[in-house]
Amino acid sequence: MNVSEEIRRLGTAGIKSIQTTFPRSDSFFFSISRFADPLYSFTLIIPLAAGMHTVLATDMMMVSVMAEWSNTLLKWMLMDHRPFWWVQETTVYGKGLRPALRQTPLTCETGPGSPSGHVQGASALMYVVLQHVLRASKGRLSDGRRRYLAMTLWMLYMILMVLVGASRLYTATHFPHQTLLGLVAGVATAWLFVDEGQCTLTERWRSASRPKMLLASVVMIAVSFGAYWLQRLMGVDPQWSVRLAFKWCERPEWIHVNTTPLFSLVRDCGSMFGIALAAPNNTRASRDVCVQGSQPAPAQCGDRHGVHPVTHAGVPDGG
C-alpha cells in the first residue's frame, strides 16, 4: 500500500464531506480564503498596518516574505499534488468511480500543493500580530489579565487557522495534511523572525546593516535560481504542476498567474530588496516610534534627534 496515496484518498473523502455538508457557503469560505491570500497581505494588510504601527508592519513584511519564499521552496522539494487534479490522475481508485470534487473560481492554483501557502502565510502573519499585542500589554495589564488576554488571543488564532484550513479544503485546493504542514511551517517561520531569544534571528535581521541585508537579498535570489535549475538538471520540469492545473481545471479563466511559484519568488525577492534598502530596521523603527509619540528610552529618542533628553539647546528643562 502506498501510504502517501492513502493519505490523499482519505483527504479527498474529507474534502467531499465538507463540500457536501456546506453546499451554499461559497461567499463565506471565499472570504476567508481571500483574507489568507499572500497577495492580500502584501497589497492590503501590511500597508494598512504601516499606517498605524511601523514596527509591526516591518515585522509583518519580513515574516510574510520569508514564509512565502520558504513555502515555494518546500513545494518544489515535496512535489505534492492538489486534490482537483490528483483525483483525475491517481490510480488508487482503479476502474471504480472517482470522487466528483466541485471546482470553484479559487480552485485552480498552479503550484504544488504542500505545504499550503495560504495557511502558512496567514499563520505567520497573525502570529506576528498576536505577539505584538501581548508585548504591548506588558506593564499595562496585571499578570492575571495578561494571561487571560493570551488565552483569548491564542483561542481566536486557532479558530482562524481552522477556518482558513477549512476554506482551502472547501475549494479543493489542498489536502488536510497540507494545511497542517502549512500551519507548522508558518508558526516556525514567525517564531524564528519575531521572537526574542538566542535561537531566533530577530535581532540579527533588525540590526543588520544595509549591505548585509542587500547581500541576504542576493542570496535569496541565488537560492531561488539554484532550486529552479537543480530541478531542471535532475530532469524535473519545475512547471509540472502548472501543466496539470491547465489540464484538469474546468474553466481556464480560473487559472491566475499570481499562483505560479515563479510569481511568488519574484515578489518575495523584490520585497526583500525593499526591506534591505530600509536597513538597519531597528534604527528606523526607533525613530518612527519617537515620531508616533511612544515613550521609549531617552537614548532612543533624545540623542537620536540631536536633542539631549534633559536639556534643549543647552538650557535645562524648567528654565
Overall description:
The chain contains 14 helices and two strands, in the order H-H-H-H-H-H-H-H-H-H-H-H-H-H-E-E. It is mainly α. A two-stranded antiparallel ribbon has the order 1-2.
- Quote the distance from N terminus to C terminus: 85 Å
Give the structural class: mainly alpha
Share of helical residues: 55-70%
SSE string, helices as H and strands as E: HHHHHHHHHHHHHHEE
Q: What's the total number of strands?
A: 2
Low-confidence stretches: 293-300, 302-319
Q: Kindly estimate the percentage of residues that lie in beta strands according to DSSP.
A: under 5%
- The averaged pLDDT comes out at 88
The total of helices stands at: 14
Note the main sheet: 2 strands, antiparallel
Major sheet: arrangement of strands: 1-2
Radius of gyration of CA atoms, rounded to a whole number? 23 Å
Shape type: globular
SSE blueprint and pairings:
Layout: H1 3-21, H2 26-35, H3 38-52, H4 54-78, H5 83-89, H6 117-136, H7 143-170, H8 176-194, H9 202-207, H10 210-233, H11 240-248, H12 261-277, H13 281-291, H14 298-301, E1 311-312, E2 315-316
Antiparallel strand pairs: 1-2
Helix pairs in contact: 2-7, 3-4, 4-6, 4-8, 4-12, 6-7, 6-8, 7-8, 10-12
Key words describing this protein structure:
319 residues, mainly alpha, two-stranded antiparallel sheet, 14 helices, disordered C terminus
